[in-house]
């Protein structure tokens, strides 16, 4: 009888808890550097491979890297001193930006099979690749002829296509692309009155609006076309992370701070990672938004890792729930990229509720016994 009562009480307690109380724990891997002072992550693919940039030996310059199977590899440059990897696809292809010889210009590139290819520009002097999908399509931004403006582009089959703007002349930028070729980013609106997040799909650039202010940007897009990013709120007093889904922009709030938050990446389950100020605006911390709750990633990592590192910025999240984040080593202050891996498979919202319903049924049977 005592056991049955205990089961019922446990079930009731579980049913009363928010899903955040069943939060996943993560192990943390310090990705190291290319021999220099620090490293910064920018993107993660389905296999847990990471791209970003790192200081090199002697801190002579920073270069794009791929971290895979425990090793950080430099991707080199287009002839100049610096390069950055911004996006990586399932095949390990990387897009980003690199200085050319003599640091004369900075151009978008695709790194594949050991070779860095210059993608050129929309007629101006500079460009940058921000996201790459499974088909090798790239989005980013490029100066147009005469460097009159920067425009979002879609690079596909050897051609860089200008995606235009939402009506403004100040320009636009592509930030992320999914496997359907849909692009998100930001663009100035007609009369350069505001800068809004957009979703480019089937040849049309759609204005995603804002959370009440005049400025928003889309930074991440998943397979379903859901978008995360940041938007100013009414009065433009602060910015908040958002999730755009089914025609509506949802405010994801903050970790308690009033100086705001921003979403960087979203996976197929709708989980978002990004950055937020904590209570009292004491610090910027990386967050995970899952099942309607924004959680501080520093509270989700193992106890040992939490005593060594501080995670400041959630950069990317894949469909397996792995997260890549920037942060620092507490003892030294060294900036380092980190890979966070769930200690168990991350349940979908539906499966989590089914688990609770099942526990409730067990508790009900126990009460009836």
Description:
This protein has 369 residues and is mostly beta strands. The protein is 11% helix and 54% strand. The strands form seven sheets. A four-stranded antiparallel beta sheet has the order 1-28-27-26, with no helix packed on it. Helix 1 packs antiparallel against helix 3. The N terminus and C terminus are likely disordered.
Q: Specify the structural class.
A: mainly beta
Largest sheet: 4 strands, antiparallel
Instruction: Report the end-to-end length measured between terminal Cα atoms.
Output: 9 Å
Gross morphology is globular
Using the CA coordinates, give the radius of gyration.
Answer: 22 Å
Strand content: over 45%
Question: Would you report the number of β strands?
Answer: 28
Taking all residues together, what is the mean pLDDT? 90
Q: What is the percent of helical residues? A: 10-25%
Give the neighbour order of strands across the main sheet. Answer: 1-28-27-26
Which segments are poorly predicted (pLDDT under 50) over 5 or more consecutive residues?
1-21, 348-369
Question: How many DSSP helices?
Answer: 3
Key descriptive features of the protein:
single chain; mainly beta; 28 strands; 3 helices; disordered C terminus; 54% strand; 369 residues; four-stranded antiparallel beta sheet
In short:
Helices cover 11% and strands 54% of the residues.
Write the layout of secondary structure elements.
Blueprint lengths: L1 H15 L9 E5 L4 E10 L5 E7 L5 E7 L2 E4 L4 E10 L5 E7 L5 E7 L2 E6 L2 E10 L5 E7 L5 E7 L2 E4 L4 E11 L5 E7 L5 E7 L2 E4 L4 E10 L5 E7 L5 E7 L2 E4 L4 E11 L5 E7 L5 E7 L2 E4 L6 H4 L2 E9 L5 E7 L5 E8 L6 H20 L1
Antiparallel strand pairs: 1-28, 2-3, 3-4, 4-5, 6-7, 7-8, 8-9, 10-11, 11-12, 12-13, 14-15, 15-16, 16-17, 18-19, 19-20, 20-21, 22-23, 23-24, 24-25, 26-27, 27-28
């Amino acid at each position: 009888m005592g056991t049955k009562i205990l089961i019922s009480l446990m079930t009731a307690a579980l049913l009363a808890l928010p899903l955040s109380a069943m939060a996943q724990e993560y192990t943390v891997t310090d990705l190291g550097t290319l021999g220099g002072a620090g490293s910064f992550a920018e993107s993660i693919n389905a296999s847990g491979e990471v791209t970003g940039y790192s200081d090199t030996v002697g801190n002579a310059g920073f270069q794009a890297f791929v971290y895979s199977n425990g090793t950080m590899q430099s991707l080199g440059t287009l002839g100049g001193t610096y390069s950055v990897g911004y996006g990586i696809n399932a095949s390990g292809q990387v897009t980003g930006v690199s200085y050319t010889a003599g640091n004369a210009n900075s151009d978008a590139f695709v790194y594949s099979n050991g070779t860095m290819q210059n993608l050129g520009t929309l007629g101006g002097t500079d460009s940058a690749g921000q996201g790459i999908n499974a088909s090798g399509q790239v989005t980013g931004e490029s100066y147009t002829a005469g460097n009159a403006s920067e425009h979002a582009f879609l690079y596909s089959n050897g051609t860089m296509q200008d995606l235009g703007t939402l009506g403004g002349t100040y320009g636009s930028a592509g930030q992320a692309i999914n496997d359907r070729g849909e692009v998100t980013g930001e663009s100035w609106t007609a009369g350069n009155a505001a800068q809004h997040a957009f979703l480019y799909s089937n040849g049309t650039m759609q204005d995603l609006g804002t959370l009440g202010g005049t400025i928003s940007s889309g930074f991440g897009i998943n397979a379903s076309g859901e978008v995360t990013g940041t938007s100013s709120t009414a009065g433009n007093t602060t910015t908040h992370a958002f999730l755009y889904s089914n025609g509506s922009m949802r405010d994801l709030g903050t970790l308690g701070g009033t100086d705001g938050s921003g979403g960087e990446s979203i996976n197929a389950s709708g989980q978002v990672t990004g950055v937020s100020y904590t209570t009292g605006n004491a610090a910027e911390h990386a967050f995970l938004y899952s099942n309607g709750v924004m959680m501080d990633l520093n509270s989700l990592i193992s106890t040992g890792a939490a005593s060594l590192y501080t995670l400041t910025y959630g950069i990317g999240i894949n469909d397996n729930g792995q997260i890549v984040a920037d942060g620092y080593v507490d003892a030294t202050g060294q900036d380092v990229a980190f890979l966070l891996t769930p200690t168990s498979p991350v349940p979908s919202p539906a499966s989590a509720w089914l688990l609770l319903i099942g526990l409730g049924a067990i508790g009900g049977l126990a009460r009836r016994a």
